[in-house]
Specification:
The protein has a 5-stranded antiparallel sheet. It is built from 3 helices and 5 strands. α1 packs antiparallel against α3. The protein is an alpha+beta fold.
Length: 179
């Protein structure tokens, strides 16, 4: 029974957290898209607007990229790959392979389809974060279960104390003493 409950809790938490991350990706991509200047296409033509080609090896919880016309990068976070997170630039979610890592990616474009914002994270980083939360919640649930067990044991002992005293008093009496 308990193994089934723990399995259900882990599956439920994993799905809930995946939905949380997807919602975070959508919100972040929308905010980045809305914060980009209207003349970003002209800015992308200037050499100083090209993002640095160095990629941080420290994984981020969230990486993003902004592309103009699907060909020119304008802005990206330090750990984002140099290639598009989602090469087809189709709006929506996808799991993409970059190098030897799978990324969970959300892509959105402006109304004209010229500017694309892609937000994502390495799947192992997301899974590690989810597993950490599941372990912490199971640990907290275990501690609470032990505390509940101790409280129930104490209440039962306290409730039965008068019965134990009566039993002890009866044992001290002789068998045929009816007083």
């Amino acid at each position: 029974f308990w193994a089934g409950m723990v399995g259900f809790w882990i599956a439920y938490s994993m799905r809930q957290e995946s939905g949380h991350h997807d919602a975070l990706f959508q919100t972040t991509a929308g905010q980045i898209l809305l914060s980009m200047p209207i003349d970003v296409e002209q800015m992308a033509r200037t050499p100083r607007a090209v993002p640095d080609n160095k990629v941080s090896r420290v994984p981020e919880k969230l990486s993003f990229q902004v592309w103009v016309n699907g060909t020119r990068p304008v802005v990206r976070s330090p750990a984002a790959p140099l290639t598009p997170l989602k090469p087809d630039f189709v709006d929506g979610f996808a799991n993409q392979l970059h190098g030897d890592e799978i990324w969970r990616v959300y892509s959105i474009a402006d109304a004209a389809g010229k500017m694309h914002v892609q937000v994502g994270a390495i799947r192992s980083v997301i899974d590690g974060e989810i597993k950490g939360k599941v372990v912490r919640s199971l640990g907290a649930a275990s501690v609470l279960l032990v505390l509940l067990g101790i409280a129930i044991w104490w209440v039962i002992c306290w409730s039965l104390h008068p019965v134990v005293e009566i039993e002890a008093a009866l044992k001290k009496k002789d068998i045929f003493d009816l007083t």
